[in-house]
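Our preliminary data section would be incomplete without showing what the modeling component actually yields. Below, a chain of 77 amino acids is followed by its predicted structure, encoded as tokens that our downstream tools consume directly.
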Amino acid sequence: MRTVEFKMERPGLVSPGDKVKIIEREGTSSYSYIIDPAVAMSGCFAARDRIQSEYGIVKDIRENARGFYVVVDFDED
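Predicted structure:
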């Protein structure tokens, strides 16, 4: 199981247990991911650390002073 955190700008867009689809964005030297449709965005990943799964399950939603974070589990190592 692989867990990835995504930054979400406002609450209520997804809930724990939801199945979400991700879209991969290729940059010049890294990859980032968006929960479709534009719900939340990941940080940057090197090519060797790319997410292989197309879908994940929302594990948790956390809020802190910087905003909301969606924690997603992917079925991969």
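The mean pLDDT is 95. The CA atoms of residues 22 and 70 lie 12 Å apart. Preliminary results of this kind motivate Aim 1 of the renewal.
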